[in-house]
Amino acid sequence: MNAVWSYLVAFVVWPGLLLAAPLGWLELWFMRKLVARLQGRQGPPFFQPFFDFMKLLGKETVIPRGVNRGIFLALPVVSLASVTAALAIVPLPGNPAPSLPGDVVLLLYLMEVPILCEVLAGYVSRSIYGQVAAMREALLSLAYNLPFLVAIIAMAQEAGSFQMSALQAAPYGVVHLLAALTFLLALPARMKLNPFSIANAEHEIVADSHIEYSGPPLALFKLSHAVELVLLTELFAVVFIPATPWPLVNLLVYLAAGVAVLGGVTLLATATARLRLTQAFRFYWVWGGLASAVTLAATLVR
Amino acid sequence: MNLIERVIAISRRRSPWICRLNAGSCNGCDIEITPLLSPRYDAEQLGVELHGTPKHADIVLISGTLTLRSRQAILDIYAQVPNPKAVVALGSCPASGNVFAGSPLVLSESLDSIVPVDVWVPGCPPRPQAILDGVARAAKLLEEGATKSQLESRRGRLS
Ligand code: SF4
């Protein structure tokens, strides 16, 4: 019973929905504000992502004719639930959930579910634009998952275990550095940011695969994206930043590292234009592949 | 419950997402929307986002003299905007047909006779700050629940 409760607390309170949602909104606001300042604009007020979410909650949901109602409404819920469950696995300071052997595999699986939901949302919507976005997302995920998965798997090989707490506690070495770079390589595409914002290219395909979504389901998709930002940045911090014995210091360092990573990725997004799908694909298979090979080689020669 | 409704109402004012519809405009009005997103006017300060799909919009900006062919498009797009919604008419064209009135391809009727218009922004073309003001007024109406479509649905519920 105790374990169930701690999982529930981890899922609902920290690092789950109740605290991850405001954190995600904070990160979203930070990114939008930074982009605005870099473009010489004032940018949105602090509570903007929260207002956007609340407003969408109060809007009507239009379901296109001929679309399966159940799947259409279930996709955003599944996406949000899986991304929150993934966050509950990450051993952030104060996370009450016990670490399981092999939870890295579970984490990697759960992190693929929102992408799958997005692809399905595009196909289910019966909109041409949504389908193009879904196709692009599906193809792109084949590319950026190579460096992303290799970075985590190399760390697991380095730590000798598929357990998150072992990854966190692995003695610091050169593999950390290489794997962190490989991870960072995959990050902009995972966050759908600019040079790789191919699946949500608003000028070519109107909106991303959520084009037919409106009201609360759209709000849930947006929230799931915000939580995903928290998940990706905190996963980076937990795995690649050396931990101190003091949990509170750890927490502050992790949050600062997350904001720093977001700042760097936003800088890149503001400075670059969108690539074509083939270019992004080639980039990830050539340079991502190279980085992956070097990272894996470093774990093996040690 | 009341508190949540209040927060949602405030959010409607603070986060007006717009979608624009060219109903036969000379492009003069539409080109004045672009500066809203640029550093000088920066509508994002008010939470305004420009969206390409009516499904994400709260406010539709309709510009242009209304042509015979655009009538059905206006109705279709208006129907796709989820409630609550507001309509802002840009320029003199939607009100009167402007210099195009009387042309055989033009409806020569006010936009108000097709969809309920909440805010008129006069000018040919209107200045960007006037458009921004129109969006802000529409957002305020959304908060108060006083756009024509909101009033209509409330009346429908009562009767
Ligand atoms: S009001 Fe003037 S600028 Fe606007 S569409 Fe009509 S003619 Fe063009």
UniProtKB/TrEMBL annotation, chain A:
Out of the domains of life, which is the source? Bacteria
**Could you give one GO CC term from the UniProt record?**
plasma membrane
Q: How does it sit in the membrane?
A: Multi-pass membrane protein
Coiled-coil spans are none
What Pfam families has UniProt attached to this entry? NADHdh (PF00146)
- Spell out the protein name for this chain: Hydroxyacid dehydrogenase
The species this protein was found in: Azospirillum humicireducens
Q: Which residues cross the membrane?
A: 6-31, 71-92, 104-125, 137-157, 169-187, 251-271, 283-301
From TrEMBL, chain B:
**Entries under SUPFAM superfamilies matching the protein:** HydA/Nqo6-like
Q: Which cofactor does it need?
A: [4Fe-4S] cluster
Gene Ontology molecular function = 4 iron, 4 sulfur cluster binding; metal ion binding
Task: Give the UniProt keywords, A-Z.
Answer: 4Fe-4S, Cell membrane, Iron, Iron-sulfur, Membrane, Metal-binding, Plasmid
Q: List each copy of the NADH:ubiquinone oxidoreductase-like 20kDa subunit domain by range.
A: 26-136
**Record's superkingdom?**
Bacteria
Q: Which InterPro entries match?
A: Complex_I_20kDa-like, NADH_UbQ_OxRdtase-like_20kDa
Give the similarity note: Belongs to the complex I 20 kDa subunit family.
| UniProt protein name | NADH-quinone oxidoreductase subunit B
